[in-house]
Amino acid sequence: MTINKIDITVHTDSPSSESLLTSASLTKGSGITCDTCRACCCRLEVMLITDTGVPEEFIDTDDWGSEVMLRLDDGWCAAVDRDTLMCTIYENRPWICREFEMASYECEVERKENGIDK
């Protein structure tokens, strides 16, 4: 038997007898790690909807006038190092990149669409 997901709920009582609920979820068995990532999400169009400090040389404007991450002719984000497939502006990456979780449903869909997973 393989466990694919573990849900953990912790209940604690504060001194004022109010209940504090903390939940965590851990996905196991997906096989997607930093070492196996392949950065296929870095081919998606990324709108810049908050200021995280993305350097100007990585910013483009789409057909509707919105700021987006610059993508090169090959379709990859300009901030991705092609040798390591790691973000060269990780500390200043856009909010959308911060929210796109590795091994999430959306990640798995992108991996399948890019032929990485079956």
Structure notes:
The longest helix is centred in the C-terminal third of the chain and has 9 residues, at 105-113. The chain has a domain at 38-88. The chain has two helices and four strands; from the N terminus they run ββββαα. The strands form two sheets. The chain has a two-stranded antiparallel ribbon. The chain has a two-stranded antiparallel ribbon with strand order 3-4. It has 118 residues and is α+β, with helices and mostly antiparallel strands. The radius of gyration is 18 Å and the shape is globular. β3 and β4 form a beta hairpin. InterPro entries: Puta_zinc/iron-chelating_dom. It comes from Aliivibrio finisterrensis. This is YkgJ family cysteine cluster protein.
Short description:
This protein is an alpha+beta fold. It is built from two helices and four strands, in the order E-E-E-E-H-H.
